[in-house]
Design a protein that fits this description.
Layout: H1 10-16, H2 74-77
Length: 85
């Protein structure tokens, strides 16, 4: 059974339009510890480190307008708690 939305679905447009407003942000993607070494940043006296982001799938939430008895497919339910990506 095909569970994908067809192209042009309004659901896809809604998802693409979501965002987060921030005043200021800086992101570096890497592995290992930060290393300011002898740079000017090391002498600022400010915290340096990493804040890991672990994306996991949450529990599926059904559309409240679904008819009674329609449940999420097993492959969707199985995603809950697993890593995204």
């Amino acid at each position: 059974m095909n569970y994908r939305h067809p192209h042009g679905s309004t659901g896809l447009g809604v998802m693409a339009g979501r965002g987060v407003i921030t005043e200021e942000a800086s992101v570096t993607i890497r592995s290992g510890a930060p290393d300011d070494g002898g740079s000017a940043d090391a002498e600022l006296g400010l915290w340096a480190g990493t804040l890991p982001l672990n994306a996991r799938w949450g529990a599926p939430t059904a559309d409240p307008l679904l008819p009674v008895g329609i449940t999420a497919p097993a492959h969707i339910v199985a995603r809950a708690g697993t890593r995204h990506g």
